[in-house]
């Protein structure tokens, strides 16, 4: 059960990291390029963060071996919902937000998405350092 708890902790850290990255890209975009760049970068970050949050809530709501079928179904439903939500949000932003900096939008999206890799690596490095000190 400790592994499941650790996984949930990492997932929460990923979502927090994504939220912080989304905020940071919006602020940095505003400072470097003005209101249009900041808003576009923030929207790109939101397009990454919100579907990931939906996926996490949907995919990780069941635990335990007895719920194996529910877990598999919830992962598929979460992945499908995440994909649809991402596409819909991109469509809405490109249709409704004028003017828009597409470059800032995609940069914001990409930076927030990289938190899916960065946070687990940081957690693993921290754990490795902790265990090496214990030896």
Please give a quick description of this structure.
This protein is mainly α.
Explain what you see.
This protein has one domain (2-134). Helices cover 88% and strands 0% of the residues. It has helices at residues 2-33, 35-59, 68-96, 102-134. Helix 1 (2-33) runs antiparallel to helix 2, helix 1 (2-33) crosses helix 4 (102-134) and helix 2 (35-59) runs antiparallel to helix 3 (68-96). It is flat, with a radius of gyration of 17 Å. 25% of the residues are buried.
Number of helices: 4
Number of domains: 1
Largest sheet, described in full?
none
Q: Give me the Rg, rounded.
A: 17 Å
Please report which band the strand proportion falls in: under 5%, 5-15%, 15-25%, 25-35%, 35-45% or over 45%. under 5%
Class from helix and strand fractions: mainly alpha
* Alpha carbon gap, first and last residue: 24 Å
- Percent helix, as a range, is over 70%
Low-pLDDT residue spans: none
**How many beta-strand runs?**
0
**What is the residue-mean pLDDT, rounded to a whole number?**
91
What general form does the structure show? Answer: flat
Encode the helix/strand succession as letters: HHHH
Name a few traits of the molecule.
mainly alpha; 135 residues; 4 helices; flat
Topology record:
Elements: H1 2-33, H2 35-59, H3 68-96, H4 102-134
